[in-house]
Amino acid sequence: MSNSHVSHPSWRQKRIVELLDDALTGRDIERVKSFMSEDCEIVFPGFHATGKGAVDDMYGMIDQFFAPGVPTKSFDLWIDNGTDATTVHGKLFGTTTDGVSIDDIRYTDTFVFDADGAITRWLVYNDVAMVWSPS
Question: Is the model's pLDDT at 2 over the cut of 50?
Fold first, then answer.
């Protein structure tokens, strides 16, 4: 049996995203940064940051909504463009800073990779705005 699928870029990209999520939910900030290019761009609804400091800024933004910290997520559908990007759709699960339990917040994350496998762009869309209004 051949393991040629292991070297396929979409397999590597999917694994990087899974490892990134493990580091993200584990609040391993340095490990999260290790997956990002030096000039990475992170975009969430109402949030935009670039560079390695973008990860610190992102955690600050997440901590305004989720308690304690990063929500868990499902990976329901993976879409690969065949070259440098992977998109994943699913749902977020967690508790808001107001104590509201959420279990059906839809999200779409698109990750763009450079030739070395580092994430250069992380584009996020989610339904958080439908359940949260900052005080």
Answer: no
